[in-house]
Amino acid sequence: MNRSQTKLTQGIDWPIVGLYLALVIVGLMSIFAAEYRGDDNVWQNIIHLNKNYARQLMWFGISTVLASVIWLTDSKFFTATANLLYAGGILLLLLVLGIGKDVKGSHSWLVLGGFQFQPAELTKLCTNLALAKYLSSQETDFTKLRSRLIAAAIAVVPAGIIILQSETGLALVYFSFFLVMYREGLPGVLLVIAFSAIVLVLSALLVDNKVLFIIFTVITALVIYFSRREIKRNKSRLLLIVAIYGFCALFVMFVVPFTFTKVLKDYQVRRIEVMLGKENDPKATYNTRQSMIAIGSGGFWGKGYLKGTQTRYDFVPEQSTDFIFCTIGEDFGFFGSIIFIGIYVALLFRVIHVAERQRSTFTRVYAYGVASIVFFHVAINISMTIGLAPVIGIPLPLVSYGGSSLFSFTMLIFILLRLDADRQMVLR
Amino acid sequence: MSVFNQPRRRVIQLIILGMVSIIIVRLFFLQVVEKKYAKLADANAVLRKVVYPSRGIIYDRKGRAILSNDVLYDLVVTPRSVKNIDTAYLCTILKIDKEEFKKKIADCIKKNGPVRQSVFSSLLQADIYGQLQESMYLFQPGFELIPRQIRSYPYSAAANILGYIAEISPTMLKDSNYASYNSGDYLGMTGLEKTYESVLMGQRGIQYLVKDNLNRPQGPYENGEFDSAAIAGKNLRLSLDIELQAFGEQMMHGKIGSIVAIDPQDGGILAMVSGPSFDPNLLTGSYRSANFNKLYLDTTLPLFNRAIQAQYPPGSTFKPMIGLVGLDEGVITPSTGYPCYGAYLGCSRPIKCEHHDPGHAANFRLALAHSCNAYFSNVYRLCVDAPKWGGIRVGGMQKWAEYMNNFGFGHKIGIDIPSERPGRIPDKKYYDAKYKGSWNSCTSVFLGIGQGEVETTPLQMANAMCIVSNRGSFFVPHFVKSIDNDDTHLLDKYKQRHVVAHISDEAYDAVIKGMTDVVESGTGRVAQIEGITIGGKTGTAENYAIVDGKRTKMPNHAQFVAFAPAENPKIAVCVIVERSGFGAKYAAPIASLMIEKYLKDTIAAKRQAMLKTVMETVTIPDAMRSRSKLDSLNGTVIKKRL
Q1: Residues 6+ apart with CB under 8 A from B99
Q2: B157-184 burial string, b = 16+ CB within 10 Å, else e?
Q3: Mean pLDDT across the stretch A147-159?
Q4: What percent of chain A has pLDDT over 90?
Q5: What is the DSSP track for B469-521?
Q6: Burial class of residue B522 (count of CB atoms within 10 Å of its CB; 0-12, 13-18, 19+)
Q7: Average pLDDT over residues A282-299
Q8: What is the distance between the alpha carbons of residues B331 and B384, in angstroms, rounded to a whole number?
C-alpha cells in the first residue's frame, strides 16, 4: 500500500483526537476563567501574550504543528530511535542537574531563549518508548527476573534523577510504568504487595509504632496458631511467616521513621501529615483548604462559567497549573466535574481499547504506558485538589497551564495515533 | 501472550474505575452534601465596606457655617510597591529621619502585610501636604495621598457648644446603645455633636466588594446589587449668632466666668460663653488626643462649660424672683416699703445693706433699684411664713421652692447640649435633714438675697430673665432652630411656650420697672445704652473656698442679669465674672456690650474705651494663670491652619 496515494488522515483514531481536543479546549477555558477579570481586554492580552491563557493558546498552536509533524513521521522512526531518545532524555536530565534553573523550589527547568522548559515532562515519553522497545524485543523474556529488573530500571532511573531535581511529584509518575509491566506479565501478587506496602506505610504514619508492633505480633501469633497443621507439614511456611513479620516490624519501627526524618524534605513530610489529618497548621493546609472551598462552593450545578469567586480572585494558589480542577469544580459543579472526569475515563478506555487491538507488542506496551501516565496524573492531581492526596505538584494532562506538559502529552498521544494507524503493517 | 493477558486488561480498567469512583464519591460529599463550603467561599470573597457619609454642617442664625467638614490627607503606603524612591527627600518633607522611616514601613508590614495599604502618616499638616502633593509623582506608586474628612470650626469659637467628635471607645462599643457603630467609627462626644449625633451622622452606606486572597478589593459584588448608598448628615441651623459668640469670648479672655444670651421670644440661645474659651480646632485632626489632654489638665478648666455646669449663689440677681413671689402671694404690693437703716434686724444676726437712708426702700421699685437686702429678707420671710401655708415648716418653704422650680431653678432646664447641672433650690426636706426639724424662716433668710444654700447656673439665670421680660412665659433655651429636611421630633419640645405660675402682669410690671430703674438710676448705671431701655440687676455672690483646710473668704463673683429692650425684649443676658468683686464693675459692662452688639451690631464710639478696658482686664488669679498653657495652645491652631 502506497501511503502517498491514500488520504492524509488514513487510519487516524478520531475518538482519541476528539477527546484530546475536548480536554485542551476545557483547559483553555479554565485557564481563562482563572485569570479573567471583568474589565480585561481579551484580544489585547492575547496579542501581547501577557496572560497565561494567551500563552497556552500559543502552545496549543505549537502542539498542533508538533502533532502534524509526528503524524507525518514514519512510525518506524519511533521504534528505531527509542533507545537513542531515552539516552538523550537521561542526558538532558543530568544537564538540568548541572545548569538548570530554580523555579518555586524545584531545580528542574531549562531556560531556552526566554522560555522555560521542564525536561522531566519530556522524559516520560522517552522512557515509555524505551520500555516498549525493551519489552517488545525478541530477546526479552518477561517471565525472567532479570528482564523484569531491567524493565524496572528503565522506569526508575529517570525518576531517581528527577528526585535529585527536587521534583518529587513528577518522579512518582514513573511508578505508573509498573501498571504497564503488570499488563505484560508481572505477577499479580506484586500489585497485592504494593497495595499492602501502602497500607503499611499509612498505618505506620497514623498509628503509634509500639501499638502497631503489638498488633503485628498478635496477628502473627494467630496466623501461626491457625496454620499449625500446615507448618507441621512444611517447616518453611513458618520461616516465611516469621520473615514477613520481621520485615513488617522493621519497616514500621525503622524504615518509615527514618524515611520521614532523613530522606523526605520538611515540606513533604508536612504535606503528608496534613493530608492524613495529623497536622492542622493553617499555613500548610491553606492550599488544600482553599481548593476544597472553591470546589465545594460549586454545588451540584456550579456557579456558571466565569462566575466563580474563589478561583477568579487568587484564593486558590497555582490555579491555572496544578489546581486548575478547582475552576472546573467551582464554575461547573458536581455535574460538570463528573462529565469532565468522564472525558478522561473515555480517553483512558479508548487508549486501552487501542492497545488491545495491536498486533505489535511495542505499540501495545506504548499505549498502556500512555494510559498509565495519564491515569496517574489525573488520579493524583484531582485527589490532591479535593484533599485525598498530599499536595504533589503534577499537572492535569492537557488541561493545566504549561507548555512542557502540553507538548509532552501531545507527543505521547500523537505518537500512539501514528503507531496505531500503522497497526496493519508487519509485526515488529 | 496477548490472549493470556486479556483478564489483566479488565483488572487495569477496574483499577481506573475504582479510583475514579473514590474521587466521585468524595466530590459528591464536597459539592452536594456539604453546605459549609459555599458559606466559606462567600466569607472568603466578599468584602463589606462601610461608606461614610459626610457629616451634617452647622450654621448660625445668619446662615454662616460654623462647623463644617474639611479635607485632610493621609499618606498611605503599599510597602511592596515602594521602589527606587528618593527616601531622603521624602523624609525631609515629612520631617522624620531614615530610621523612623524604616521603622514605620516595618510597622505597616506588621499590621497589614506588604501588599495592602496602610496609613504611613495620618492627617498631614497643611505645609507638609502642600510640599508632598507637588512631588507626589516621585513617590508613586508605593505612596498615595488619601483624602479624609475632618470637622473644622472656621470661626474658632463656640467650642463647648458645638462639641467634638472622636473615635468610639471600647466601653461604648459594648453598650447596646451604640450597637450600630463599629470600632474605628467617629461620633459626637460632647455638645451639639453629641445631642444631634443621630441627625448629623447621616446614614452610612454599605458597599459589597469582591476581594482577592490578599483582601484587596477587585470591584463591586454582583454589580452593586446589594449596595446601599450613604446619605449625608442633615444640617443644623442654630439661633446662635457666631459674631456675638466670638465677641463674648473675646471679652471673657483672661477671665473666668460665663455669658449666656437668650432670645426671650423663642428661647433660642444667642451666645453661650464659658471663659476662658479654647479653639475647637484643637480637637480635630492629628493632635486631637494630645490637645485634649492638655486642655483637660489646664488649670483654667477650659473643657468645663461654666454656663451650664458651674453653680453659683445668684446673690442680688435673685431679688427680682423673690419680689415676684412676694407680689404674687400678696404679702407685699408694689407700694410696700421697708424701714431699712443699713441692715436687716429681723433675725438674731443682722444682714447688712449697702444703703443707710431709709428712703431707698420706700417702695418695691426703689428697693429693687437699690438692691436693698433688708427689704428682700423681709419679703422672703413674709412669703414662707405666710399663714395661708401654715408656716414655713408646714407648707411655706415647700410653696416657695415650688415657685423657684417654676422659674427654672433647682432642676435641669433641658437645653440641647449634654452635661447640664441642676443647681439647687433648698426645700423643706433639705432643711429638715440639715437642721433635724429645728429651723425657721431665719435659718434660711439668706435665700431672700440669693445667698446661702441656693445655687443657680448662668443658663438658669438667663432663662429667668426671659421669664421676667416675657411677663411669665418662656421657651426651653436651645441652640438648634431647625434641622434641614427634619423628620425627627427632636425640636418639638423647644417650640412649646411654658407659662410660669400665672403671676399677674401687675407684679411683672413692678419688677420690670424696678429693673429698668437699676440701670437708669440704681446699681447698674454702667450698663446704660443710648436709646435702649434695659432692665437689669447686679449681683455679688460671696465666694468661699477651702484654703489650707479653712473656709476662707475669696473675692466675690460679680454677676449681672439683664434684658433689653424692656418694652419688647429681644435679648436676655446673664454674665458672671468670677472673683471680680462688685457686679457692676465688669459683669454689667460685659452684659451691656453684648446687648449693644446684638441690638445695634456695632459698639458706639464713646463706649470703645469701656470695651477696651473690659478686653484688657484679667481677673484670673496669677497662681492659676501662670500655670495655664491655654493661650499658647490656642495660638498653635493658627499656625496649623496656615
Answers
A1: none
A2: bbbbbbbbbbebeeeeeeeeebeebeee
A3: 91
A4: 33
A5: HTTSEE---BSEEEETT--SSTTGGGSPPEE-TT--HHHHHHHHHHHHHHHHT
A6: buried
A7: 75
A8: 10
The domain limits of chain A are 3-185+282-421, 207-264
Nearest to B37 among A297, A337, A361 (CB): A297
- Which residues are bridge partners to B148 per DSSP? B72
DSSP-assigned states of every residue in B379-436: HHHHHHT-GGGTSIIIIIHHHHHHHHHHTT-SS----SSS-----B---HHHHHHHHT
Q: Is the pLDDT of residue A412 over 80?
A: yes
Nearest to A358 by CA among A135, A86, A63, A130: A135
pLDDT for the residue A396: 93
The one-letter amino acid code at A24 reads V
**Cβ–Cβ < 8 Å for B599, B605:** no
Q: What is the interface size between A and B, counted as CB pairs within 8 Å?
A: 124
The ipTM assigned to this model is 0.85
pLDDT of residue B95: 84
Q: Grid cell 502642600 — which residue?
A: B130
Residue A105 pLDDT grade (very low, low, confident, very high; cuts 50, 70, 90):
low
pLDDT of residue B2: 45
pLDDT over 60 at A337, yes or no: yes
In whole angstroms, what is the distance from residue A198 CA to residue A305 CA?
A: 39
Note if the bond before B276 is cis, omega within 30 degrees.
yes
Question: Which phi and psi (to 5°) does residue B238 adopt?
Answer: -100, 160
pLDDT in tens, B485-499: 888 888 989 999 999
pLDDT beneath 70, residues of chain B = 1-6, 43-50, 183, 211, 213-217, 221-228, 583, 637-642
Residue indicated by cell numbers 433675725: B347
Query: From the CA of A202, how many Å to the nearest CA of chain B?
Result: 18
Q: Locate cell 501636604: which residue? A: B129
Task: Find the length of chain B.
Answer: 642
Helix (H, G, I), strand (E, B) or coil at B270: strand
- Do B37 and A183 make contact, defined as CB atoms within 8 angstroms? no
Separation between Cα atoms, residue A293 and residue A316, nearest integer Å = 9
Which has the higher per-residue pLDDT, A200 or B415?
B415
- Output helix, strand, coil percentages for chain B, rounded to the nearest 5: 45, 20, 35
Q: Closest Cα partner for B73 from B135, B149, B185?
A: B149
pTM above 0.90, yes or no: no
CB-based contact B561:B573 (threshold 8 Å): yes
Cβ–Cβ contact B15 with A under 8 A = yes
Any idea which residue has 469532565 for its cell? A340
Tell me, what's the pLDDT at B3?
46
Task: Please name the member of B32, B44, B219 whose beta carbon is closest to the beta carbon of A310.
Answer: B44
Domains in chain B (CATH in brackets) are 70-148 (3.90.1310.10), 306-567+574-587 (3.40.710.10)
On whether any CB of chain A is under 8 Å from the CB of B37, the answer is yes
Q: Which residue has the cell 492580552?
A: A45
Distance from CA of A379 to the nearest CA of B (A): 7
Query: CB–CB of A352 and B36 under 8 A?
Result: no
- pLDDT confidence tier of residue A368, bands split at 50, 70 and 90: very high
B24, B210, B212 ranked by CB distance to A341: nearest: B24
More confident residue, A20 or A43: A20
